[in-house]
Amino acid sequence: MRNVYMIAIALILLGMTPLLAENPSLAAIPRQVPAVGGETQGALATAITAALPDPNFTGFGGNGVPCFNCVPTSAVTNVGLSVPLTWVTRGSSITFVLAVDVYSFSGVGNFIYSIREGERSQNGKEVARGNVAAGVYPANWLAYFPGTAPGNPGRYTLLGEFDAGGAVSVVTTPLIVQ
User: Fold this and answer.
1) From the CB of residue 163, how many other CB atoms can be counted at a distance below 10 Å?
2) What is the pLDDT of residue 68?
3) What is the pLDDT of residue 16?
4) For 62, how many CA atoms within 13 A lie in the half-sphere containing its CB?
5) What's the longest Cα–Cα distance across the chain?
6) DSSP code, position 89
7) Overall fold of domain 2-177
8) Which of 47, 52, 54, 83 pairs as cysteine with 64 (C-beta 3.0–4.6 A)?
9) In the chain, where are the structural domains located?
10) Local structure of 25: helix, strand or coil
11) From CA 143, how far away is CA 66, in angstroms rounded?
């Protein structure tokens, strides 16, 4: 079953063209399933990842996208996939990607990432944060946040939050800085 989920996520990401710029950006794949009538809180944050940008990619404002098996100095367009990293080098350039599945919510949604001190801690001291708000509709959304890994080595928690009109969904993953 895990392979099915990984294949589905890869297919979703392969179909995306991220719109990375110096600021956070969003990309969406409209849902094929019709929204359920009367539901107002049908949105979940599904994954938060940290990935290295591809230094050879110059599109989308000159910023590299997270890349898996990219071809350096290639004449072909590299497909940007966020390969989840748990270990990162302190102070390195990182792209944080928050995946959100909006099933039946339409309205203003707020995509948020944060890094907190401590392993598996939603209450640790916040050392980095970014957010972007946008009008959303039923779709699979990806929010891209260019950033930097914390400067101090240690164990951190990477949090992804999606606020759908007051209904907040949170997903976390460990982040170890060396």
Assistant:
1) 18
2) 52
3) 38
4) 1
5) 50
6) -
7) Immunoglobulin-like (2.60.40)
8) 54
9) 2-177
10) strand
11) 12
